[in-house]
Design goal:
alpha/beta; twelve-stranded mixed beta sheet; two-stranded parallel sheet; globular
Length: about 425
């Protein structure tokens, strides 16, 4: 019978990588050699759910263990008022400084970070391809500035997938006259230094100039200031292949600005875009939108392919999040995207990244709600299909609505 320790090291590592985390921890406790063998698996995926755990990890875990971290998820929300003296920025910088192999980073911030400390730390993260940053605190009291989020993202040389949630627009980047009264604005973010490549242009639209970025998700963030968004012809065109927009939670005195802004983001992504995920409805552009001259000039100066408005790019796949978009807005959304050559339309609860779960018999109420929603969307789609004229939507081949593994409908065209 073969002894465990007589097996080749490569085989031992492969076995450990296939064990559940609880089994890896148990194996690591059996001997020193097993502990060393299990270290890469133990620290490959690190989750720090509070400011206290973040501080404890930075203080007590040997720094050379950072080389094993591939995925890091951090929340800076404090569990106790007694931990107010802890500095999330210093602790995070300590961990990132040794995480040379980090590939995925998620930050859920209860307050902003010190930009003079955290931005230089990001420049050393050469392998991070996925970055998730969100504000888990109060936007009114502790806004997370777009200038900080953009500077951090632009500091990651291999960034391909960026998720933003509840990011506050900066007073330095938007015209305050065009901001609805109830939208929180970051007013005191002037300590954010110039970026080596972007300089002072740290508004959200500058993300479109990042050469490695392929997937951009913007959730619960006000984009109404971007209704004149485009991209400068002197800059490289965006390489965004997938864009997700969920709208925002704020009412607007001028909803036209919001509608035009969502369309402008789609247009600015350019011909590389092939997948669009919407958690907000789109509406046709009106002839006149009151907009302050200062905002128009800023947008046209910084981000403009040409003086005339470009067409919407071709989009092969459109996904609609039915948990955020009402069925009565389907026709207006499809009207806006009618020239995009969409081949596939999917509708489900969520962003479509995971398969719908089957609804069990014990959850009969949820199942009935899903069936009711399915019927409403089925009626809206049938009405949409009947309204199509000759030559319209010639590229559309499939429509699928799925609110559960057994609650779905499909149209093959």
């Amino acid at each position: 019978m073969c002894c465990w320790y007589s097996l080749p090291t490569e085989l031992l590592i492969d076995i450990v990588n296939h064990l559940p985390s609880s089994a890896v921890r148990a194996l690591a406790a059996t001997s020193r050699s097993s502990h060393s063998l299990c270290l890469p698996a133990l620290f490959a995926n690190v989750i720090l759910p509070s400011a206290e755990s973040l501080h404890s990890f930075a203080l007590h875990v040997p720094r050379h263990y950072g080389q094993y971290i591939l995925s890091l998820s951090v929340c800076t929300e404090r569990k106790s008022a007694q931990s107010d003296h802890l500095s999330p920025t210093d602790a995070l910088v300590t961990i990132l400084s040794t995480s040379s192999r980090l590939q995925s980073l998620a930050l859920s911030l209860a307050s902003s970070l010190d930009p003079l400390k955290i931005i230089p730390a990001f420049a050393h993260l050469k392998s991070v391809h996925t970055f998730d940053i969100r504000n888990c605190g109060s936007e009114e009291d502790t806004p997370l500035s777009e200038r900080l989020a953009v500077s951090l993202a632009a500091s990651l040389p291999s960034l391909a997938h960026l998720r933003l949630s509840r990011i506050s627009r900066s007073a330095a980047c938007v015209d305050l006259c065009d901001v609805p009264y109830n939208v929180p604005i970051a007013m005191h973010d002037f300590d954010i230094p110039l970026h080596p490549r972007l300089g002072a242009d740290l508004a959200l639209p500058s993300l479109l100039t990042l050469p490695t970025l392929r997937v951009l998700e913007i959730r619960d963030t006000w984009l109404g200031a971007d209704s004149k968004l485009a991209v400068n012809s002197d800059q490289s065109r965006p390489c965004i292949e997938k864009l997700l927009l969920t709208g925002n939670m704020y009412t607007s005195d001028n909803p036209v600005l919001d509608n035009d802004a969502y369309t402008a983001w789609v247009r600015a992504c350019g011909p590389s875009l092939h997948t669009l995920v919407l958690g907000t409805a789109l509406a046709p552009k009106v002839d006149f939108v009151p907009l302050s001259p200062s905002l128009v000039s800023h947008s046209e100066r910084e981000l403009s392919w040409d003086n005339e408005e470009t067409e919407l790019p071709p989009i092969s796949h459109l996904h609609i999040d039915a948990s955020l978009v009402t069925v009565d807005t389907l026709s207006s959304t499809m009207e806006v995207l009618s020239d995009c050559g969409i081949a596939r339309l999917t509708i489900s609860y969520g962003d479509g990244t995971s398969s719908p779960e089957p609804l069990g018999e014990e959850d009969e109420f949820a199942r009935q709600c899903a069936l009711d929603d399915l019927e409403e969307w089925r009626d809206a789609i049938e009405e949409f299909l009947q309204s199509l004229g000759s030559g319209q939507w010639h590229a559309l081949r499939q429509i699928e609505v799925a609110f559960g593994k057994d609650v779905r409908a499909m149209w093959e065209l």
